[in-house]
Design the sequence.
């Protein structure tokens, strides 16, 4: 039995910035995961949970006030990309790792046509390619992403494309150099449900042909359950649950995960929810000051020790990790939907 | 009794080059105390319909009857603008983004009591009583009234805009995607709140959304819209069990469900191909012709009409007999 290749391995990653009083504020805390060849990881979280920052950090794009305080991101054959200089990173991005953005119209250059933009991606990593070869390669990839009449569409500008078409173009651009890892930052944002499925089916097919890894952000639990193998639930920069999709669907062990699933299916009784009513909530505290579990002021199960000790990610089975102390104590307390 | 009856409503926008048919001859009615959901992709005319009912845009053709009681009814479509006050009190709207629909420079107390002050029917002690009753009902502490909108979470903001719209005892609430910008905790709370309010005050809702899970949860009747037309209309349980129009089928199969996984790949032939046509040059025949897996050439010749297939269940499709059996 041959061991599968490990493509990416993130260890103990902390991203933070200093505020006006020079206090360290962590945006991402204690992020650990690894992915093998051909696997897909879904990062599930609401807006503001740090999904996009995580996606950017994986490509070593770190927006200004943020700094890496700890940790490493090891990528197959490349080593720790957080220690590479800008020149090396330039040759890695788009070739080894590439990104599918959430809003394609914002990402494509409005002043250049599709042909120039796709060919630029090829030429940036391959200097000795002839123009004709390059053109044919671009046509081939546009055919693969099922853009009708690609020879005509090559000369279109981004504003002439609909949301679904523009997203197909960005998928083509991210796949053209056959990268081993693709990071999709909420790729279905702003698309209609019928287009969303088409795009995701297409992306999944293309990736399974190439054997590339996918890391995908989304706010929708069903979408990730359908298209990923592993799910990480992110809440204010912390992974609360890290598991394969089957055990996530059947028994989510963290109250927050079961809440996320309940809000999608909506088949529950009012009293069963693991949340407090709004009246019991104090005024929202800033999350970095909070001691103990971050989910404390919403969770119905929280007791005194939840306000003092911050829980650690606990291994339940080989593929299932949870950051909640109630997993030990009284499992029946957590409601499964 | 129907609180609202919409007959052959149309709304066309004129641009310099062409006419955009945003809403095209739609009819429906909402019984008292019930919820009708308008479902469809973006650009299908859901929000335009809501704006027509609220009198926010001028209507091209059609009638909108608001029936306050058996004797008293108003045609909103034919009403001159200076008499809009007649129905403003009975129809209210809750917007998609609570943050941008509350004035950031006013305190919550002002925002919530403003409708009462405008109508001027209650004294200030009565206003306070009504306010504390409603704040209790939506589970918000009274201390919130002295905050500004920015101090509240989106869920609380949405609850405030719900209070603001029901404080004058309206008959009909238009809910324009009220949960789409909320996080999961407040989404559940707001939905449950809306259901409880409906029971208590016997409100009628027009619920606009593209999220089928919430639609199933809240509505009594569903109307599916596509390019300004209603293509299928039926009670919720009927449409869940037996959706007939190809577009409704596609919509159902593309909304992902937790229950049976990877269903999408199995049922790919039921999905639509291509993109939604532009509403400027609409096809002559069936609007779904270019995307429909069941289409034949005849579909492209004549425009289709809603046909009643069974009781309370109407579908606009020529090939309904063939689609039914598949």
Sequence:
């Amino acid at each position: 039995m041959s061991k599968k290749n490990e493509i990416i391995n993130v260890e103990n990653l902390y991203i933070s910035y200093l505020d006006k009083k020079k206090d360290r504020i962590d945006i991402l805390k204690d992020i650990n995961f690894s992915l093998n060849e051909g696997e897909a990881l879904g990062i599930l979280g609401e807006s503001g949970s740090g999904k996009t920052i995580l996606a950017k950090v994986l490509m070593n794009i770190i927006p200004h006030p943020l700094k890496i305080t700890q940790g490493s991101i090891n990528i197959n054959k490349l080593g720790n990309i957080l220690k590479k200089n800008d020149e090396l990173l330039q040759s890695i991005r788009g070739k080894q790792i590439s990104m599918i953005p959430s809003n394609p119209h914002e990402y494509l250059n409005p002043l250049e046509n599709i042909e120039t933009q796709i060919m630029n991606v090829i030429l940036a990593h391959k200097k000795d390619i002839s123009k004709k070869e390059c053109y044919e390669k671009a046509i081939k990839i546009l055919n693969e992403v099922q853009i009708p009449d690609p020879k005509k569409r090559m000369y279109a500008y981004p504003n002439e494309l609909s949301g679904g078409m523009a997203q197909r173009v960005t998928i083509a651009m991210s796949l053209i150099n056959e990268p081993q890892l693709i990071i999709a930052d909420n790729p279905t944002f702003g698309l209609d449900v019928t287009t969303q499925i088409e795009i995701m089916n297409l992306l999944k097919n293309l990736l399974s042909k190439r054997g590339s890894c996918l890391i995908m952000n989304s706010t929708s639990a069903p979408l990730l359950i359908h298209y990923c193998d592993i799910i990480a639930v992110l809440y204010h920069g912390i992974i609360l649950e890290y598991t394969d999709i089957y055990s996530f669907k059947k028994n989510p062990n963290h109250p927050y995960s079961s809440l996320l699933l309940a809000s999608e299916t909506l088949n529950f009784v009012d009293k069963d929810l693991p949340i407090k009513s709004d009246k019991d909530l104090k005024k929202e505290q800033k999350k970095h000051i909070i001691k103990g579990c971050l989910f404390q002021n919403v969770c119905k199960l929280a007791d005194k020790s939840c306000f003092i000790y911050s829980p650690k990610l606990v291994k339940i089975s080989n593929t299932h990790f949870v950051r909640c102390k109630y997993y030990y104590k009284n499992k029946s307390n957590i409601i499964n939907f | 009794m129907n609180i609202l009856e919409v007959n052959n409503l149309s709304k066309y926008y004129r641009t310099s080059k062409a006419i955009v048919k945003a809403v095209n001859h739609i009819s429906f009615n909402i019984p008292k105390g019930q919820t009708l959901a308008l479902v469809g992709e973006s650009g299908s005319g859901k929000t335009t319909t809501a704006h027509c009912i609220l009198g926010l845009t001028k209507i091209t053709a059609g009638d909108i009857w608001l029936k306050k009681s058996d004797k008293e009814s108003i045609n909103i479509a034919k009403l001159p603008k200076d008499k809009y006050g007649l129905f403003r009190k009975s129809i209210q709207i809750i917007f998609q983004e609570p943050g941008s629909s509350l004035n950031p420079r006013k305190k919550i107390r002002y925002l919530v009591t403003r409708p009462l002050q405008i109508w001027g029917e209650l004294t200030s002690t009565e206003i306070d009583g009504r306010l504390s009753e409603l704040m209790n009902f939506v589970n918000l502490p009274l201390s919130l009234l002295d905050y500004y909108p920015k101090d509240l979470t989106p869920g609380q903001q949405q609850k405030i805009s719900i209070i603001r719209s029901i404080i004058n005892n309206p008959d009909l609430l238009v809910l324009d995607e009220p949960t789409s910008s909320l996080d999961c905790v407040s989404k559940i709370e707001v939905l449950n709140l809306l259901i409880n309010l409906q029971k208590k005050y016997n409100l009628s809702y027009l619920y606009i959304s593209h999220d089928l899970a919430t639609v199933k949860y809240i509505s009594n009747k569903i109307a599916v819209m596509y390019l300004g037309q209603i293509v299928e209309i039926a009670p919720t349980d009927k449409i869940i069990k037996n959706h007939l129009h190809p577009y409704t089928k596609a919509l159902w199969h593309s909304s992902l469900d937790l229950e049976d996984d990877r269903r999408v790949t199995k049922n790919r032939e039921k999905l639509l191909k291509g993109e939604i046509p532009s509403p400027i040059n609409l096809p002559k025949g069936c609007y779904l012709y270019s995307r429909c897996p069941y289409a034949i050439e005849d579909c492209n010749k004549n425009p289709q009409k809603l046909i009643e297939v069974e009781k309370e269940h109407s579908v606009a499709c020529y090939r309904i007999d063939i689609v039914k059996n598949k």
Chain B touches chain A at residues 41-42, 138-141, 153, 155-156, 159, 183-185, 187-189, 191-192, 210, 213-214, 216-217, 250-251, 253-259, 261-262, 264-265, 268, 271-272, 274-276 (CB under 8 Å). DSSP finds twelve helices and twelve strands in chain B. Residues 35 and 205 of chain B are 5 Å apart (CA to CA). The first helix of chain B runs from residue 46 to 54.
